[in-house]
Amino acid sequence: MIRNVLSIAGSDPSGGAGIQADLKAFSARGVYGMAVLTALTAQNTQGVTGVHLVPPPFVADQVEAVFADVRVDAVKIGMIANAAIADAVAAALSAVLAAATANGHSIPVVLDPVMIAKGGAALLAPEAVDVLTLRLLPLATLLTPNLPEAAALLHQPVATSRAKMAAQAEQLRALGPAAVLVKGGHLDSDESPDVLAAADGLHWFEARRVPTKNTHGTGCTLSSALAAELAKGASAREAVAIAKDYLAGAVAAAGHLTVGSGHGPVQHFHALWKDAE
Length: 277
Hints:
The protein is of the alpha/beta class. It has helices spanning 18-28, 56-69, 83-102, 128-136, 147-154, 162-173, 218-231, 236-252, and strands at residues 4-11, 32-44, 47-53, 74-77, 109-111, 142-143, 179-183, 194-198, 201-205. A nine-stranded mixed beta sheet has the order 3-2-1-4-5-6-7-8-9. Helix 3 packs parallel to helix 4 (128-136). Pathway: Cofactor biosynthesis; thiamine diphosphate biosynthesis. This is hydroxymethylpyrimidine kinase. InterPro entries: HMP/HMP-P_kinase_dom, PM/HMP-P_kinase-1, Ribokinase-like.
């Protein structure tokens, strides 16, 4: 049975991040993708120049419409933008997740707390951080912050060591998520380690830093791949291993694309487009 995975996120018209990246990653990982839009952005590989928010009640309407008709096997949450949208998503998801649980259908939720775009533009209003923490974190099966996002959620300095990464992962897990993956791409090191805090302890995932500027949408892509694997029945630890391997291939093949002059996108279909390389 092909699994159905829903992304709740913003749009990137250049196709490298947001909903567009999510749908590509879903397809590449063999699941059927669906999308609820929270925001429209004007952006390209060089940065974000504008954001137009979807009214919160209409965001909720989209969520409810999908769940009213389609079996949803996993949810990925990306750009939430502000407190009102975070509230709307939390309320709509809480209701449909509770109904699914009552019917014996457990739906994993991957929460990627999108806060800052690659070019530095803010994608989450400061007042929304506490709403996201209080209302959405408890719904998450897996939370996937990078180092600045983990620090912002905890109102702490950015971690500069593995020990601090691990400590923040555990602190975030104490706020409600079943598991937390803190991504170490911002560490000042040749390595790019990630740490997973789960019920059975800490698990480290090692990776060499890839020398490329084509990293637009890596966070969106990883979280979507994680949602796809969870939908197919993988554990959090298994999903992270599979999704990281997929993303590594997508980053390694990014140079085969010629998209923009800034931070280019990863090659989501690197395993399928062999003839185009």
